[in-house]
Amino acid sequence: MGGSPGVTLDKSTLQPVNTQPVNTQSANTPGGASGLITLDKSTLQPINPTSEDRLSRTLQNMTYAMSGQSERMHPDDKAEFERGVKAGMKSAAVTTATGAISGALAPLTAPTVTGTEAVGTGILDPAGREIMRDVTTYGPSVARQVLSHPLTQSLLARAAGYAGAGYILKSLGILGGK
Predict the structure, then answer these.
(1) 39 Cβ partners below 8 Å, 6+ apart?
(2) Domain for residue 25, yes or no?
(3) pLDDT tens sequence across 68-121
(4) Distance from first CA to last CA of the chain, Å, rounded?
(5) Number of structural domains the chain divides into
(6) 74 and 45 within one domain
(7) Long-range pairs for 34-37: beta carbons < 8 A, 24 or more residues apart
(8) 109 within some domain
(9) What domain range includes position 43?
């Protein structure tokens, strides 16, 4: 991070030790401005980092985080890292809770079994009779049964407002289709 490869800097003056001219112009510098890098004398880090410097710092921080060495990050990056960890933990908790709630509600939204009936398969046995098989018939789910009741629809309309209740009932296919 910082200077060009192969250039040794005098730490007191931040000038190249060798006498060859240093070309630090970046191809990504907008408007043809000089791409000189100004270094902070106390840390030898760029004051105006280029996109390559920022990418290098980001990749190094990712390496530290994935290898469990987050204490080696730059202090500014460490604060951002901690905020990301906190946000990730909140997101994980919400996702877990949402999954648990939807798992608990799954039996209410599953269709109910109403019975079985014999249905012909279209295949004849050796005696010439049609082979029958039992088929399970399904009825509406418990949630659909509850929401189809006029009293429940009235209570939902009062609680969610008529527009909200209509939207909910239409999306569930109870009122007029989707």
Answers:
(1) 2, 3, 9, 14, 45, 46, 47
(2) yes
(3) 888 888 888 888 888 888 999 999 988 888 888 878 777 877 888 888 899 999
(4) 58
(5) 3
(6) no
(7) 37/2, 37/3
(8) no
(9) 1-49
